[in-house]
Design goal:
This protein is mainly α. The chain has one domain: DhaL domain (Serine Threonine Protein Phosphatase 5, Tetratricopeptide repeat), CATH 1.25.40.340. 70% of the residues lie in helices and 2% in strands. The protein is built from 9 helices and 2 strands, in the order E-H-H-H-H-H-E-H-H-H-H. It has a two-stranded antiparallel ribbon with strand order 1-2. Helix 1 packs parallel to helix 4, helix 6 runs antiparallel to helix 7 and helix 8 packs antiparallel against helix 9. The longest helix is centred in the middle third of the chain and has 19 residues. It starts with a strand and ends with a helix. It binds adenosine-5'-diphosphate and magnesium ion. The site of adenosine-5'-diphosphate (ADP) has 24 residues, from helix 3, helix 5, helix 6 and helix 9.
Amino acid sequence: MMDAATITTWMNEIAGAVRAERDYLIQLDAAIGDGDHGINMTRGFDAVVRALAQEEDGTPGKLLTLAGKTLVSSVGGASGPLWGSALRRGGRALGDAPTFDDGKLVEALQAALAAVVDLGAAVLGDKTMVDAMDPAVATLRREVDAGTVLPVALRRAAEAAEVGMRATIPLQARKGRASYLGERSIGHQDPGATSTALIVRALERTVAGSQ
Ligand code: ADP
Ligand code: MG
């Protein structure tokens, strides 16, 4: 079973990961966007960590929802509203329970992906964060349904996110700022898909560390 500490630890792990990769994310976004992705993600998840530190008695659903609201209000770029709605919708899917199991986690991540798609209207192959998130969620669902233990299921989900991330390189962007470049977006890895892979890896570490 996972609980509120799982959410707090996951958010802390994300904040650390995007901070460690801040310059890399900036560099990726500088090539096909405006170079702020590393700044947006670091600022956003630092704000999330601060917000959650004051809410330690919340349910997991409440904490994830708060994380989403905090991202929406602290990040100006596309990634703020996208990850913000994702975490809010994921939080709502977790409901009011004090704990959640593997199946509920899958449900929450599925809801998070649906929120990104509802808001951003990107489909697989548009060279966005969806290219990492969709295969990660699909893999996690398949593995959990097959009875794979969660740490292993999450490792495979993280690997799927990274495969999707690397597969954005030859694609032409069809959504977001990078789409303005047309064919010139080809040959570069999408920054949002890259931070998404970091976020899934952060979840894998969170769950592995609590077993
Ligand atoms: P901005 O593009 O406003 O500067 P960021 O640099 O923080 O915001 O985020 C850029 C990332 O957001 C892209 O690399 C892409 O993965 C993601 N993104 C942009 N538009 C969309 C969309 N419509 N749907 C899904 N993801 C998107
Ligand atoms: Mg940007």
